[in-house]
Amino acid sequence: MSTVTRRSFIKSSMAVGAGLAVAGPASRVLGANDDIRVAVVGVGGQGGGHMRYFHGCKGARLVAICDADENQVRSKAKAFKDKEGYALKTYTDVRKLLEDKEIDAITSATPNHWHSLVTIWACQAGKDVYIEKPVCHNIWEGRQMVKAARKYDRIVQTGTQKRSDKGLMEAYKYIKEGHLGAIKWSRGFCYKPRHKGTNGIVYGTNGPNPLPKSIDYNLWCGPAEMEPLRRKSLHYKWHWVWNTGNGDLGNQGIHEVDLARWALGDPNHLAPRVMSIGGRVGVDDAGETANTQILFLDYKPAPLIFEVRGLPRKAGDRSMDNFRGTRVGMCIQCEDGYFVGGGGGGWAYDNDGNKIKQFKGLGGEGHHQNFINAVRSHKVEDLNADIEKGHISSSLCHMGNISHRLGKQMTPDEIRNNIDNDDLMDSFDRMVEHLKANEIDFDKEPITMGPMLSLDPKTETFVGEFSDMANMYVKRNYREPFVVPENV
């Protein structure tokens, strides 16, 4: 358990919020050779990458790391000192780290359920933030993060690094200029292996299974319910459990949902209607989230459709499906052609599939440096992926999962009878063929069709039919003292 009391932390946070103890870079004069002092919170797989990326940024210096797993902290700190020649400060409790006035900015690769609270606490402590995707575990949390960033005048970057891909910037400019005609639909894809033999299976029972001895499980759970461990592995598999994750829609999918929304002109509001079709099939494990899913977002004049597939191309084959050559990326269909791409750029084609123009990019290279540069300039407009962009794209994924969780299991024919959009029907027909190729028995593993939910983009809450149930998922219950504040 933490030695930091809730009363002492709240008192400290209130003082910071009142402008009495701001310790971030805006409170000190930065010279040309004055490094931004960075701490990484959550140093597992993605967090280990953060340590490398930000230590390699011009004008930044890694000074501290934090993780609820003492083994992670110890091993990462030792490896860093052996390689770089100096010691990092180490923490297991992020609240203690945030009291350190020698830290200017934090980056966080914690599990999803921690993203909002660690960002808000950091903003209150006067620190700028780079937060991984999805930026929040639910819709309400994301808006609270935006409010905190604005109230405390902090720079908050979203970890959707493909926003810094120059090839995509050029491609979307090309589309906007009308070279391919008006957009008819924008599709994103996450056809990524999550089947047996991959990291998608959540092996386990109803538990409880023993926790790693190096884990402070109270700190690890934080805002989430402190549930018994029902799977054999604590790390990474949390993505496929509702208490801590958001499925592949909110894991890999958020990247491509963001790219598909960007292609539509980057609307700065949530879609007015949403529907999900899919389920967790073909794995027979302890996971809860869908591994096969279609997300339909009724933007006007062109919809955004997203497709998740975790099963292989067919039974007995480990390769994955693709759509016009892409497995993890997007396709933008226009009147006179289409664009297919992802991280690293892509190609524009005519409607006969002939290549028209290539757009070369470097994936997410430069995204972390973009954050450091914006921290130094202290201009939100310098960010390629400000927190509000991250909130909107993350919340589109949450909208889809809400529809899914309110859905009913149906036969393929019953679902077809309830689809009134040709583009959605195309996605569904291809999904059915994909599942048949994986020998899915629809009588034993039926597909779930979620209701078409209506949302008020101004309030970011659901309205109309099913809204009472849907709004129960807009926000979660929190464990003291890990409560995302109502008034940031």
Description of the molecule:
The chain starts with 5 loop residues before the first helix and ends in an 18-residue tail after the last helix. It contains 15 helices and 18 strands. A hairpin with a 3-residue loop joins strand 11 and strand 12 (338-342). The strands form two sheets. Strands 7, 8, 9, 10, 11, 12, 13, 14, 15, 16, 17 and 18 form a twelve-stranded mixed beta sheet that branches. A six-stranded parallel beta sheet has the order 3-2-1-4-5-6, sandwiched between helices. Helix 5 runs parallel beside helix 6 and helix 6 runs antiparallel to helix 12. The longest helix has 19 residues, at 387-405. The protein is an alpha/beta fold.
What's the short version?
The chain is an alpha/beta fold. It is built from 15 helices and 18 strands.
Number of domains: 2
Q: Oligomeric form of this entry?
A: single chain
Q: Structural class, from helix and strand content?
A: alpha/beta
What count of helical segments does DSSP give?
A: 15
**What portion of residues is helical?**
25-40%
Gyration radius over CA: 22 Å
CATH superfamily of the largest domain: Dihydrodipicolinate Reductase, domain 2
Question: How many DSSP E strands?
Answer: 18
Q: End-to-end span in angstroms?
A: 25 Å
Q: What is the CATH C level class of the largest domain, in words?
A: Alpha Beta
Large-scale geometry: globular
Specify the biggest β-sheet. Answer: 12 strands, mixed
Q: What is the mean predicted local confidence, pLDDT?
A: 93
Stretches with pLDDT under 50, minimum 5 residues: 1-24
CATH architecture of the largest domain: 2-Layer Sandwich
CATH topology name of the largest domain, in short, is Dihydrodipicolinate Reductase, domain 2
